[in-house]
Amino acid sequence: MEQINALGRRKSAVARVYVNTGKGNITINGRDLADYFKQETLQFIVKQPLEITGTLAEFDIKVNLDGGGVKGQAEALRLGIARALCAINAEAYRSTLKSAGFLTRDSRAVERKKPGQPGARRRFQFSKR
Predict the structure, then answer these.
(1) Judging by beta carbons within 10 Å of its beta carbon (0-12, 13-18, 19+), is residue 58 exposed, middle or buried?
(2) At residue 1, does pLDDT exceed 90?
(3) FRET label pair with 3: which of 11, 16, 21, 127, CA 20 to 30 Å apart?
(4) Phi, psi of 51 (to 5 degrees)
């Protein structure tokens, strides 16, 4: 199998995912998964598409992660892995990944700050007198 690449985004995080056949190693920016994401919940988020399709030990995954915070990066990586699995074998994996909601890009992002206000929606305190 040749190398498959996919892209995952969440908030301002971008994950470029490269998948090869292998033993299940996940390398992020040259570091191991457990070294990059210290929290087990974030590691669980990243591994969800592999666990639901039963391909945890079949593919080696190399990732370039950029921007955002750790939670946004983990969710961007989840989307990138799910898209790569669909590119590998759509009829086998697509229905399970889609029903779990891993193929949907979460487009929510921080609303911009407006001029004349302290935040996006917040107004300065009103003083009648």
Answers:
(1) middle
(2) no
(3) 11
(4) -70, -40
Which pairs count as long-range contacts for 2-6, CB under 8 Å and 24+ apart, including other chains?
4/84, 4/87, 4/88, 5/84, 6/80, 6/81, 6/83, 6/84, 6/87
The residue count for the chain: 129
CA distances to 2, 68, 73, 111, 127 from 13, in Å: 26, 4, 5, 16, 40
pTM of the model as a whole: 0.91
Per-residue pLDDT of 3-57, as tens digits, reads: 999 999 999 999 999 999 999 999 999 999 999 999 999 999 999 999 999 999 9
For residue 117, which of 105, 128, 125 has the smallest C-alpha distance? 125
